[in-house]
Amino acid sequence: MSRASKITLGVTCLLTAITIATVHIVQEVERETLHQGPIKDAKRVAEKRLQKEQDQTRLDAEAAEKARKREFNKNDHAYQQELRKKYEAIQPLSGEVVTAESDK
Asked: What's the mean pLDDT when you consider all of the chain?
């Protein structure tokens, strides 16, 4: 066998070995990437569920705050009505607006 054919055979075998190794490495990377897909999906679903729970908790807290404010306003309104009745009993209201010009 000539020197040129030995070099050609050696280079061809080397390139073939490199190509085979590269293909195996790429397949392994793709397999790992595919394996990470369901893991990422599960994580995304868990985060979405957690976010939904946090949103629901926040909405519940806001609803409780609105109910508390509504109850406070209702009680305050009742108190103001009682005061109005009390003061009308002491000094009845005529509905007439008194200004500085109307006194003259």
From this structure: 91
